[in-house]
Amino acid sequence: MHRSRFGRAGRSCPRPGPPVRPSHRRSGSRFDPTRTGADRRGSVRAGILRPCSETVAPAVSAPRRRRPDRGGGRHLQASGAALARKGLGGDRGGAALPARKSLRAIIAGLLGVGVLSSAPSKGTAEAPRHLPLSAVVRVTRGRTNEPTELPDDPELPALGVIRERGLAGSIPSLGLGGAHVKLRLCGYTPGARATFGARASRRRFAVKVYAKDPEPEAKLYEALAAAGLASDSGARVPRLLAWERDLRVLVIGWLDGTPANLLVKQGRGARAGELAAIWLRHALSLPVISGPPVGAADVLRRVPQWVGRIGKSDRALGAAAAAVAERLAQTLPREGASGLVHGSLYARHVLELGDGPGVIDWQRFGRGPIELDAGVFLATIWRIGLEHGRAAGEAARAEETFLAETTGILDGRALAWHRAAALLRVAEKRLRRDDNRLSPGRALVCEAARLAESSGDHRAKFPSSR
């Protein structure tokens, strides 16, 4: 007969089966000094909750424990050590995504150089790791109100003079008098140049110290001022305040604005793309300004240096970059009329000034195709979307707005070529500063390969692959 679930007083009857009791410690002394730490830890783990009977919790077989899927169902998550041995990352909420492996496969398919991997093949000794090149040293920016020690660099003699005489005594044409000057080191390339932000009373300006004669840059600022680009509104560049030929020092006005790379990270990607497009259209209307040639052929002469430095960080990635360089040599674009180009129009060099763009850091200027500046800008925007996942959508909007606002003034194939070359340059810079950043380097070289391949196809369009 069927028995009621409840007893005489309506209480639940216990189910048949052995009782399961938690045990907090073994009998005997709570601490035994003769036992090792590992033994004691094992005892604690075993004593906290003893295994339940088979009828309560059926055991999971060993093959099921080894299954790779870690999310959903009753499959147990693989241990951290096992994941590390397999080279898999991932979170606890779902199946592991071998993103790096997929990226290597994409690059290999594009370039035909085999699977890109830093790990040695079986049966071979591990390849020695190479330290990043230290040709460029970045100095952390200090706070605005913190004085910074001047670097001790014999190639920059002006630093020693400023250290001894002070800025007012070194550059009397500034008319600083007895004003207290605060310097902040903004950028430093040993043996080449140093840039300082300076405050003196209510004045703010930039001091640029060079190893080589900065006369071409000084004359550029004078020419741009004559063209109306040193005003207080619209598209503009810094105004030249002082030029000390003997010290090789330029002092220029300070443009106070938000750089385009920060606009993208702040959710204003469309504005970043618009500002760069406004500047390029404005540059096309400028009168002829003399400068060194910086066309595609000049860029191609620098590519082998970038490829060599990439290969020092990772040989397989270097082989992929070499294949991109070969493709760039085969598809060198024909360039028409040349105009003023910035030469290094990174997103951080384009500022939001409220009523128009400001463009700074002109030491690499020259005459060349406008696609060179466009390609450099888009390459740095793409890198921001790659390395800052939350900004990927804004980076795409910046690119979309930029291309829409420059319709009709850019040649598609030339733009793809210069974007590919600029991506190699960006990859080299990232790996030179930190050769552990191989994943971003692979992605940058992969995108460069895609663009280099399409730059020779007149039917191709060149949206970014994200």
Computed CA radius of gyration, to the nearest angstrom:
31 Å
Order of helices and strands: HHHHHEEEHEEEHHHHEEEEHHHH
Q: Which strand order do you get reading across the main beta sheet?
A: 1-2-3-5-4
Uncertain spans: 1-12, 22-29, 44-58, 67-104, 110-148
User: Which CATH architecture of the domain at 258-454 would you pick?
Assistant: Alpha-Beta Complex
Largest sheet: 5 strands, antiparallel
Total number of beta strands: 10
CATH superfamily of the domain at 258-454: Aminoglycoside phosphotransferase (APH), C-terminal lobe
For the termini, the CA-CA separation is 68 Å
Which outline best applies? Answer: globular
Question: What tags apply to this protein structure?
Answer:
466 residues; alpha+beta; Phosphorylase Kinase, domain 1; five-stranded antiparallel β-sheet; three-stranded antiparallel β-sheet; 14 helices; disordered N terminus
Written description of the protein model:
- The chain is α+β, with helices and mostly antiparallel strands and 466 residues long.
- Among the domains are: 157-253, Phosphorylase Kinase, domain 1, CATH 3.30.200.20; 258-454, Aminoglycoside phosphotransferase (APH), C-terminal lobe (Aminoglycoside 3'-phosphotransferase, Chain: A, domain 2).
- The chain is 41% helix and 11% strand.
- The chain has helices at 37-48, 62-65, 80-86, 99-111, 157-170, 215-226, 260-265, 269-284, 296-313, 315-330, 370-387, 392-405, 412-433, 438-454, and strands at 181-189, 193-200, 203-210, 240-244, 249-253, 258-259, 339-341, 350-352, 357-359, 366-368.
- The strands form 3 sheets. It has a 5-stranded antiparallel beta sheet with strand order 1-2-3-5-4, with helices on both faces. It has a 3-stranded antiparallel beta sheet with strand order 6-8-9.
- A hairpin with a 4-residue loop joins strand 8 (350-352) and strand 9 (357-359).
- Helix 9 (296-313) packs antiparallel against helix 10 (315-330), helix 9 (296-313) packs parallel to helix 13 and helix 10 packs parallel to helix 14 (438-454).
- It is globular, with a radius of gyration of 31 Å.
- Mean pLDDT is 77; it is low at 1-12, 22-29, 44-58, 67-104 and 110-148.
